[in-house]
Structures are given as C-alpha cells and as structure tokens.
Design goal:
The chain is built from 4 helices and 27 strands. By secondary structure, the protein is mainly β. The protein folds into 4 domains: 38-122, RNA Polymerase Alpha Subunit, Chain A, domain 2 (Beta Complex); 132-225, RNA Polymerase Alpha Subunit, Chain A, domain 2 (Beta Complex); 227-314, Beta Complex (RNA Polymerase Alpha Subunit, Chain A, domain 2); 316-403, RNA Polymerase Alpha Subunit, Chain A, domain 2 (Beta Complex). The strands form 4 sheets. Strands 2, 5, 8, 9, 10, 11, 12, 13, 14, 16, 17 and 19 form a 12-stranded mixed sheet that branches. Strands 15, 18, 20, 22, 23, 25 and 26 form a 7-stranded mixed sheet that branches. The N and C termini lie far apart (198 Å). The chain crosses the membrane at residues 12-31.
Length: 408
C-alpha cells in the first residue's frame, strides 16, 4: 500500500486566516446575542375588512373586532425599523356566499422580512352578513324657526323629493322616514338652500351613516310673502235724493289679513268689495258681496262673503239765538259787547234730534288778562257732544272794557 504524504502549506499565514474566520464567527454571535439581541414587540393593528371581495348582493353589517394584537420578534435594530402602519390585518370575503354570522381568519401582511410574527389575537373574527337591498323613500322637509315678523312661508318645493337608499336589509327595516331639516333665521326674502338629508329610525335616531344615499342633500326653494292687514271698502254709484246723506257704513268683516310679494303688498291700501247704487238706499240697507282678492294676493283669513250695512239719514238745519257771555273778566272792569247775541246755524241728523240738548249751547268771549280798551274777539262755543256742524254769526264781536266807577 502506497503511503500518502501531506504536504506542508507553503503559505505560513494559512492558519492565521482560519483563526481570523473563527474569531469573526465568535464575535458575530456575541454582537447579536449581547449587543443586538433578539427581542419581541407588541403591535395593535386595525383590521381592514376587504368588503370589495364580498359577493354582489351581500353586505357586512357587524364584526366582533376592530383591531388585532400582534406580537413580532427580531433584533433590536430591525424592530426599531418597524412602523405598525405598514403591517396590515386583512379579512377577505371571497369565499362568503351566504347571510348570517360567519367566522373568518385574519390574514397578516408583513412587509418586514427580518421580522417574525410570533402570535396574532384574535386569529379569527365573527362577522354578520346581510342582504344588500335598495329602496325608494320620500323626503320630508321639516322647517324650523320663523321668518321675520310680518312675513310668512307661503310654500316650499323640494328637488328631488324621492331618493334611493342602499343598505343592509335588517337596517332598511329600521327606517322610519327621511327628512331634510331647514332652519330659518328671520328671513324676509324667498330663497333656495341645499339641505342635508337624514335617515331616522322609529325613535328619531339619526342612522344615515348605515346607508349609501343617492342624494346626500336636496335643494329646497322657500317662497316667503309679506303680510298686511287691509281695510275693506265699498264704492257707490248714482246720487242720493236731495237732503239725504250716508251717515254710517258698517262692514263685517271690516279688515282682512293678506299676504303677497313685497311690491304688491306695499301698493295695496284697501280692497273694494263691491259697488252699491245710492239710489236704492233706504234708511237701513244691507248687502252681501262674494269676496274676491286682487291678483297675486293671498287671503290669510277665511273670508268668503262681506256683509255691508249702510245707514242713511236726513240733514236738519236749525237756527237759534243765544246771548254771549264774558269769561274771566277782572272784578274792577266792566265789559260791553256789540252785539251781545249771536245766531247759531246747527246741522244735525234727523235721527239724533230727540237726543240733542239745545240748552247746552253756550257762546262766550275770553277776556282774561285784558285791560280797559276796545277789542274784536272771536266768539267761542260750547256744544253738545253729538253736534259737530255749527256756524256762529257773527264770529267776532266788539268788546269794550272800562273800569268801574267808585259808586258801582
């Protein structure tokens, strides 16, 4: 058998190189175990429910978890590089085909190759799957607040007044109504506003966030009118017989509350309800007129007919002569009047004749603060309250004031 001989390496540094590699390995283990050891870190990561993978016609309504607790491990240096926002916890619905409660795994997407996932809690979540349905629902406009004083809301128009609501079948059944709540703030002009739509349940709770709405807001046009109380009047044609007059007109109602656009209301000072032929009037005459409003004016009172009572009377003229008195003459003076009597021409309604007290007529001149001398003073008159038309002749008289003699 031939003997094999090992040749001695010509390079004397060979063993030095082997020793260097060995020392490097020892140092690597030292650095990683002592200076940069393996550690663990707990992360809280929100769960992303990938509902885009859910079959058409289904929707997730509830889940029993919103986040997972993940324990990761790695060297201290590598753990320091971890941003928990880059780690995703995803629930996939690709295999879901039915409604009800379903348990699904939480999948962790870890972009850090030197980081290990030690544990995940919870590993599974329970979700509730329901049918996805769409319904049509009327939108009710609710107006809160009031317009400015002297104005009213005439009407409002919403566009659109029906919207589509998409959501879980169990949530759809809880819907009571859809409302658009418009708040007024002393408005005095018509306006258009974009108003958010709310979906309310039977208890009035806002559950809009559960649904996908075809319109998140609707346009509401509000028509505001100005109000006014306007007197009612009547017109006459023809002439009363000589000596006759209309003494009183009574309308029931005598006024009406109306509304209209500002320019129309501002120009409206009365409403004529009808025309009466004066030749047909008796002492007391009653008429009924169907009530009609001017164009563009809206009645706020429920007035369908106006009853008008017209009173006529005869004018009586009477003349009486009464003495003129002197008022507030100082005691040391005497006053002489020229003339000392005046004639009163009195006009009154014949129907009032029995109630007139002619003795209450009193004519006088006021000489207060006057001294002796000649004056032309107006004749003052006191008369009964139910007499208005009186002429005094003469209306001025001459008054002479003298001092009393010592014998007087």
């Amino acid at each position: 058998m031939k003997k094999i001989e090992l040749k001695k390496p010509k390079d004397d540094t060979f063993w030095l190189r082997v020793l260097s590699v060995f020392i490097a390995i020892i140092l690597w283990f030292y650095v990683n175990s002592i200076i940069n050891p393996i550690k663990k870190r707990e992360l809280i990561v929100p769960i992303r429910y990938n509902i885009s993978t859910l079959s058409k016609g289904l929707v997730m309504t509830q889940s029993d978890a919103k986040e997972v607790r993940i324990v990761v491990s790695g060297t201290q240096d590598e753990l320091g590089k971890v941003d928990e926002k880059n780690i995703q916890a995803v629930v996939d619905f690709s295999d879901v085909r039915q409604t009800g409660e379903i348990k699904l795994p939480v999948n962790i997407n870890n972009p850090y190759h030197r980081i290990n996932i030690e544990s995940v809690y919870p590993k599974n979540v329970v979700v509730n799957i329901d049918n996805l349905v769409t319904i049509q629902k009327d939108v009710t406009v609710e107006i809160n607040g009031n317009p400015k004083k002297g104005y009213i809301i005439n009407s409002y128009q919403e566009e659109p007044n029906v919207i589509s609501i998409k959501g879980a079948e169990s949530d759809i059944k809880e819907i009571s109504k859809c409302v658009a709540q418009l708040n007024l703030s002393l408005n005095d002009r018509s306006f258009k506003a974009s108003v958010p739509v709310k979906v309310l349940d039977m208890k009035g709770k806002d559950i809009t966030s559960l649904f996908d709405l075809s319109q998140k807001s609707i346009d509401v046009y509000v028509d505001i009118l100005k109000t006014k109380q306007v007197p009612l009047t009547v017109k006459f044609k023809g002439q009363l017989p000589p000596g006759k007059i209309i003494s009183r007109i009574v309308l029931k109602p005598s006024t009406i509350n109306v509304a209209g656009k500002e320019e129309d209301i501002n120009s409206l000072n009365e409403i004529v309800v009808g025309t009466v032929d004066a030749r047909m009037l008796e002492n007391v005459s009653t008429f009924q007129f169907d009530f009609n409003l001017p164009k563009n004016i809206k009645a706020l009172d429920n007035v369908k007919q106006v009853v008008i009572t017209i009173y006529t009377d005869s004018i009586v003229q009477k003349s009486i002569t009464i003495p003129v008195e002197v008022k507030d003459l100082e005691s040391k003076y005497l006053a002489s009047l020229s003339p000392d009597r005046v004639t009163l021409t009195i006009k009154y309604y014949q129907s009032n004749q029995s109630s007139i007290d002619f003795s209450r007529f009193r004519a006088y001149v006021d000489v207060s603060n006057l001294t002796q001398g000649d004056y032309s003073l107006p004749v003052m008159l006191e008369k009964p309250d139910n007499i208005e038309n009186v002429e005094v002749s003469p209306s001025y008289i001459k008054v002479t004031i003298t001092e009393k003699s010592q014998n007087q």
